[in-house]
Amino acid sequence: MKIKPLGDRVVIKPAPPDEKVQGGIIIPDTAKEKPQKGEVVAVGSGKVSDNGETIALSVKVGDTVLYGKYAGTEITIDGEDYLIVRESDILAVI
Fold this sequence. Notes:
It contains no helices and 8 strands. By secondary structure, it is mainly β. A hairpin with a 2-residue loop joins strand 6 (73-77) and strand 7 (80-86).
């Protein structure tokens, strides 16, 4: 990975959208929702507190996380799609 996020930002590789629902119905590309789950591929150094200390992030590279549907900024690097979010936009680690 050629990207290093700054501060409390995290780079996530979104999981591919589901092709089928539980009932076995195949979903066309136009009806697929954006994934809200992905793998952390890079993390920043942490948030700087008011007194100048760096607070480490609670997520690490390799974690699978859930994030908000409209969170972050989508980017493409070397043909791969990624999402850059603040740690506060991450809802859970699974």
